[in-house]
Input
Amino acid sequence: MDALAARSGVSRGTVVQIEQARTNPGVGTVVRLADALGVSIARLLDYDETSVVRIIPAEDAVRLWSGPDGGSGVLLTGIGAPGPLELWTWHLRPGETHASDPHPAGK
Output
């Protein structure tokens, strides 16, 4: 609670009251808390009991690179917000290399 209060600029007492559902925060407070947590306002306020984790069977993973000696780059999953976040599995055989451009700054 202390760290969230410090990062957001919202008092610890207010954070505690919000967490315990004893107050209804204003839009500005919600914006500061969402920014401090690194999530969108919609994500912060969306109560959804479904898991955000998806299990992808190996046969459904997307192979985006195949090396000349059997190496591979497989995209397991990815999300766009608050990311981008991509989870890959890479296998490079001896002598193989893979060059790629970095993601643009802020993307």
Summary: DSSP finds four helices and three strands in the chain. Residues 7 and 36 are 6 Å apart (CA to CA). The mean pLDDT is 81.
